[in-house]
Amino acid sequence: MPRVGVMGGTFDPIHHGHLVAASEVAHRFELDVVVFVPTGQPWQKSADGVSSAEDRYVMTVLATASDPRFKVSRVDIDRSGPTYTVDTLRDLHRIFDGEDASADLFFITGADALANIATWHDSGDVISLAHFIGVTRPGHVLTDPGLPQGSVTLIEVPALAISSTDCRSRVRAGEPIRYMVPDSVLEYIEKQALYTRTSS
């Protein structure tokens, strides 16, 4: 059965930190594919401050297009209502599971998000649907989130002090984000005038 990495996120915008983390995990865990899943309606963030799902989806497609291991899924965007990880994983199991066995899903997330997994919707079911991989993010220390033994792996990836929040702030301030995001994403941001004071 396939070994499938799942990288969910707002991706507003997707940046090199996301791509490095996905590549590192794909290598270490011998994954067949990493599926990037932009959130539809992120339930833990105000919808007012998030770019449209379509803009975030297009940026994710552009950023991942050159790596054959990377795919982008619309399951969270096309599902109505708030985006919950439990629904994402159930949908991906329906897509990747075979008749005789379930696919191995590896959910890749930042260490800060993983530390709050107990607050996630249906967290008990979430843990049963995938192996969780917590990766370093700027300003956060890797600590065991207290999940059942064997259900989580904490890893260090090459440090890139980049965050989507910082990218958006720099665009609003007229500062460059070249080399923080893929060139194709930068061009899309500029063309759509994303993150300016008059846009999302």
Radius of gyration: 16 Å
- What series of H and E elements makes up the topology? EHEHEHHEHHEEHH
Low-confidence stretches: none
Rounded average pLDDT: 89
Extended strand count: 6
Biggest β-sheet description: 6 strands, parallel
In whole angstroms, the N-to-C terminal distance is: 41 Å
For the largest sheet, list the strands in their spatial order: 3-2-1-4-5-6
Overall geometry comes to globular
Tally of DSSP helical segments:
8
What proportion strand? 15-25%
Secondary-structure-derived class: alpha/beta
- Determine the fraction of residues in helical runs and give it as a percent range: 25-40%
Describe the structure.
The chain is of the alpha/beta class. Helix content is 36%, strand content 16%. It contains eight helices and six strands. The chain has helices at 16-28, 53-64, 75-78, 85-96, 111-114, 123-129, 164-172, 183-192, and strands at 3-9, 33-38, 70-72, 104-110, 131-135, 152-155. The chain has a six-stranded parallel β-sheet, with helices on both faces. Helix 2 packs antiparallel against helix 8 (183-192) and helix 4 runs parallel beside helix 6 (123-129). The radius of gyration is 16 Å and the shape is globular. It starts with a strand and ends in an 8-residue tail after the last helix.
